[in-house]
Amino acid sequence: MIAYWDKDLICRFANAAYLDWFGKTGDEMINKMHIKDLLGPMFELNLPYISEALNGNVQTFEREIHTHDGGIRYSLANYYPNIENGEIKGFFVHVADVSPLKILEKKLIETNAKSNEQNRRLLNFSNIVSHNLKSYAGNMSSILDLYTLSNTESKKNQMINFLREISNGFTSTVNDLNKISSIQNDEEIHLEKVHLYDYVQKAQQILHIQIESLEIRIKNNVDMDVEVLINPAYMESIVLNLLSNAIKYKHPDREANIEIYNFFEGNKLGMAIKDNGLGINLEKHGSSIFGMYKTFHSNKNAQGIGLFITKYQIEKMGGEIQVESEVNVGSTFKIYFSSL
Length: 340
Prior knowledge:
By secondary structure, the protein is α+β, with helices and mostly antiparallel strands. The protein folds into two domains: 2-97, Beta-Lactamase (2-Layer Sandwich); 140-336, Heat Shock Protein 90 (2-Layer Sandwich), CATH 3.30.565. The chain contains eleven helices and twelve strands. It has a five-stranded antiparallel β-sheet with strand order 2-1-5-4-3, with helices on both faces. Strands 7-9-10-12-11 form a five-stranded mixed β-sheet. Strand 1 and strand 2 (11-14) form a beta hairpin. The longest helix is centred in the middle third of the chain and has 51 residues, at 99-149. The protein is elongated and about 105 Å long. The two termini are 54 Å apart.
C-alpha cells in the first residue's frame, strides 16, 4: 500500500492496494478520509509513529493487520516525512505484506520450542532412570548385606520378604518408566487418577532400610480417599525424592520426624512433606534451590538433581512446588496439583 497523508491526517493519495487490504477505493479515501477512520482500533497503536513522522522522523515498524474480508496480514510499515522548506507538510506511507516471512518465522520458533521441549523430556527421562533405580539398587544391596549377617532363619526370612517388596516395586517402576519412554514424543504426558496415600506408602517401602536404621519417625497423614490426576512414574519419583531428602538431611542432634499430609487451599489440592531436619537457608539459596546440580549441605552423596527433576515433573503435570525452610528447624515442601 502506498499513500500520502497531510499534517491534518487527511488522505491526499492512496493506491489500489487499499481496496484489497481495507476494502476502500481511492475515491472513498482521497481528500475525504481521516486516517483514524481508516485504521479504526489500530489508530491508537500507530499514533506514536504518526506523531514522530510529523516531527520529521522516519518510522519503520511491524503491524498485524486484520483485512476487511476477515483475513490477517503481517505488514512492515514505513512513514516518510514530507518536508518542504523546513516545514512538515505530511508523510508518505509504504506498507509491505511480509506474511510469508512472518509465518516462516513462527514455524521456526515453534519447531525450536518443540525441539527444546523434547530435549528436556529426554534429559528428564534419563535422570528419572538413574535417580529412581539407584534407590532400588542401594536398598537391595543393603538388604543382601543384612541377609548375609543374619544368624536366624526368621531374620533371613524377613530380609527375603523385604527383597520381594523391593522387587515388586522395582518391577512397577520399570513398567512406569516404559510408559514414559513410549510417550516421549507426545505433546502431553499420560495422566491417571490415583490415591496419594498409596504413593507415600510405596516410597516408605522402598526406603525401608534407611528409615529403620536411622530410626526415622514418619506419619502418613494423607487422606486415604484423596485422588488426583497425575503421571504414576512422575508421582513415585516426586514422593521418593522429597522423602529421601528429608531422611538424608535429618538433624544429627534430635530424633527425625517427618509428616506427610494433604491440604486444600481454595479449590486447590496440595500435599506437604514436612521435616525437622537441617533446613535450608532460603535467603542464600532460595533462587537456586530447584536448579540442576545445586546442593546445600556437605553430604557427599548429594547429586543436586533430585529437586530439579521434581520441579520439572510437577510443572509438566500442570502443578507447582513451593518450599518453606529455616536452618536447624526443618523444611516443608508443598506440592500443588492442577486438578483433582
